[in-house]
Amino acid sequence: MENFLLWVFYVMTFYAFLPGVISRTFGFRVFKRGRVEKEIALTFDDGPDSQYTPQLLDLLKRYNAKATFFVVGSHAEKQPGLLRRMKDEGHDIGIHNYVHKSNWLMRPKTVRRQIEKTNAIIETATGERSNYYRPPWGIVNLFDYSNMGYLQIILWSSLFGDWRIRVGAERLQRRMMKKLRPGEVLLLHDCGKTFGADEAAPHNMLIALEAYLKQGMKQGYSFVNISQMIRLTDASWKPSLMKRTVISLWLLWERAFHAAFRLKQVGEGDKPSFHYRVTTYNGQSVEFADGGAIGKGDVVAELHFDNGMLSSIAARYKSPLAAGLRVIREVEHALPQLARQLAEDPDASNIKAVYGVTMIHRGADRLGFEVFNLPDGLFARSTNVYLRLLTKVLTPSDSGNRRKDRNKRLKEATSPRMLLMPVHRIRQYAAAGLDNLQGGNADLLRAPIDRTIAGTGDESAVISSKTTAL
Ligand SMILES: [Zn+2]
């Protein structure tokens, strides 16, 4: 019975907390449509152009419209004044490579250089670096995702062939009017000098755009830059009634769980970050990097994240990086306190290690934990199936490719790991506090240890001890 309850607890924890993290973490890298009430984002590629861009800026100003310019570095280099004007008039500037060339034709390193060079040009002209990137023709190189780090990739929800002069201003206008809808990210071009475009095409675009702006204003739309669109979209994320119900049931369940298994709170106050309980270890035998070992039947302190803490972090920090760092910070703060409590707790006098299973394990090695993969088996497999289902639920509007890609990243970042810290290491936290530990005994913690527990035997025992939240 106890094992069953632990299992249910584990699954519930997955369900309730992960949605927030996942939608923020993985929904944010590629942006192409907003979820907003009455806003539209205009984006202009390939410029700046000495002839058309000033006209466009005048037009936007007349209608009090903010937009986003994805500039080609080699064009921007010659027009620092236009870049400054864009910034001064409240528009966003994004990067569209240094030369207008597809990322498929360039090595990842070259793409990175192009982006860097263009961003330097933007920074020199405006004093600010750009956070946005749009690859030419929207063709993203697989490496782009891993290489871009700080950059948000912006695609679009509609395009109209405005780079072709034969489309004509009138037809262009008709096409655009069909997309007078909230959340649209329109792709237009303020320069016709790139390969495949007609040089005078932006002339038609300006005529059609004026009609579009006029009609849009009449209907109460506002035209915003991409940062504003992302901000509003992000703020509109609300869990459905179903999800909220599940979350409150889960919080209730968590309280019952804490009472039933006598979880002890780490630290004082009503907003703890962690709980622990002293229990016996049921998993595989493990030897620690610096000597000592743990095996079945040994006494351990089993660590639990507080899920209230986790969900408030997920809600507060929009960027995955910031949320991850924040969680690691919380662990850093709590470890000395945990160490002192364990030293005073008579139940914990004979523990061999601190133990937990968690999905957030990046950086745990730095804190003195050893990180182990879970044995491949029913548990690992069912977790993966569950996560795939979850992603589908969370991302109903995604195209197949994007979802596939997201799934891959999701799997990498959220596969559960077992964390173990031998008791002599946690004792050092009590004696020294974290600063000293990281200074004096840093060698102890430095080498990242990532091992797989040998064999897949006794899976049920492993499952029965999977309790740590998240
Ligand atoms: Zn382009």
Automatic annotation (TrEMBL):
Domain NodB homology: 38-224
Domain of life: Bacteria
Pfam families: Polysacc_deac_1, YkoP
Keyword Transmembrane: yes
Chain ranges passing through the membrane: 6-26
InterPro entries per UniProt: Glyco_hydro/deAcase_b/a-brl, NODB_dom, Polysacc_deacetylase_ArnD, YkoP-like_dom
SUPFAM superfamilies (UniProt xref): Glycoside hydrolase/deacetylase
Assigned keywords, A-Z: Membrane, Transmembrane, Transmembrane helix
Name of the protein described by the UniProt record: Polysaccharide deacetylase family protein
The species this protein was found in: Paenibacillus chungangensis
